[in-house]
Amino acid sequence: MSELVLAGLLVLLGALALVAVSAADLLIAAIALGAYGFALALVWAALGAPDVSFTEAVVGAGATTVFFLAALLRTSRRRSNVPNPQRLVALGAVLAVGLVLLVATRQLPLWGDVGAPPSTHVSPRYLERTLEETLTPNAVTAVVADYRSYDTLIETLVIFTGGLAGWLLLARPR
Amino acid sequence: MNYPYWAAIALLMLGLYTMIAQANYFKKFIGMTIFQSAIILFFLLTSVKRDATLPVVATPGTPSAAMMNPLPHALMLTAIVVAVATAGVAFAILVRLYATYGSLEEGVIAARVTAEPHEP
C-alpha cells in the first residue's frame, strides 16, 4: 500500500465532501455525494479492506445516490439562501470538538503499528484459526458469516425494519 | 505520523458543522453521511498494519502480523449496510415532510409547527 496514494485519495475525499456540502443546487450535491461514496470505496481499497470497498461502492455510492435522486424528484432541488443565525455557535462547538479529538490522537498508537492494541488482542486469533475452523481463507467472510453470523442474521431484520418504516411512511393514507 | 487520523477528524468536523449549521434537511443528510464515513474511516485506519496485506489466508500458517486486522472490516461492513437502511427511512421522512409542509427548510417548518400546533 502506497502512503502517497492514500494521502492523495484523502485530499480528493475532502474536496468532494466540500462540493457536496456547499453546492447550492441539491442535484449537484447529490451527484457529488455519489462521487464522494466512490472515493470512499477507493480509500477502503487503499487501506487493504476490499470487502468494505465493494460494499461501499454498491450501497454507499450506488443505492444512496439512487435513493437521494428519487427523494429529490418528489421534493425540491432548491434550497433557500437565508443564512442560519446559529452558524457561529455551530462553528465554535465543532472547533471545540475537533480540538478535543486532535489532542486525543496524541494518545493513539502510531498509525500502522503492528503491536498496537487493535492488532494484538483478539484479532490474531481469527487470522490464525479461520482456515482450520471455518475452511474460509477470507477472514472477513469468516467473521461476518461464521463467527458473528447471528449479528449478520439480525442485520437483515434491521434492513427489513428500515424497509417497513419507509413503506409505512410513503404509503398513501386511505 | 498519525496524519490519517487527522483526516478522519477533519471529515467528522465538516459533517457535524453541516448537520448543525445548514438549514436544508437534504444538506443535513449530507452532513450525516460525511459524519458516518469519518467514523468508518477511523475504525478502518485502526485495522492497518504496516507492510501487511489483505486479510485472506492464502497459505496456512501465515503470521497474523502479515495481514490486516479483519475485525474492523467485518464491523464496518455492518455499519455501511445499516447506514443505507437509515438513509432510506430518512428520505421517506423527507418526502412526507415536503408533502405536508411544502418546504424542507428547518426555519419554515419550525414556524409552521409553532403556528399550527395541532395539525392532523
Mean pLDDT of chain A: 90
Strand percentage of chain A: under 5%
C-alpha-based Rg of chain B, rounded: 21 Å
- The count of domains of chain A is 2
Could you state the order of secondary-structure elements of chain A as H and E? HHHHHHHH
Helix and strand element order of chain B: HHHH
CATH class wording of the largest domain in chain A: Mainly Alpha
CATH architecture of the largest domain in chain A: Up-down Bundle
The backbone outline of chain B, from C-alpha atoms, is elongated
How much of the sequence lies in strands of chain B comes to under 5%
- N-end to C-end Cα span of chain A: 57 Å
End-to-end Cα distance of chain B, whole Å, is 57 Å
By CATH, the superfamily of the largest domain in chain A comes out as: NADH-ubiquinone/plastoquinone oxidoreductase chain 6, subunit NuoJ
Number of helices of chain B: 4
CATH class of chain B: Mainly Alpha
Structural class of chain A: mainly alpha
Characterise this structure.
The complex is a heterodimer of chains A (174) and B (120). Chain A has 8 helices and no strands. Chain A has 174 residues and is mainly alpha-helical. Chain A has 2 domains: 1-85, Up-down Bundle (Four Helix Bundle (Hemerythrin (Met), subunit A)), CATH 1.20.120; 115-174, no CATH class. Chain B has 120 residues and is mainly alpha-helical. Chain B has helices at 3-21, 25-46, 70-101, 106-115. Chain B is elongated, with a radius of gyration of 21 Å. The mean pLDDT of chain B is 89. The longest helix of chain B is centred in the C-terminal third of the chain and has 32 residues, at 70-101. Chain B has one domain: Helix Hairpins (Orthogonal Bundle), CATH 1.10.287.3510. Chain B contains 4 helices and no strands.
Summary?
Chain A contains eight helices and no strands. With 174 residues, chain A is mainly alpha-helical.
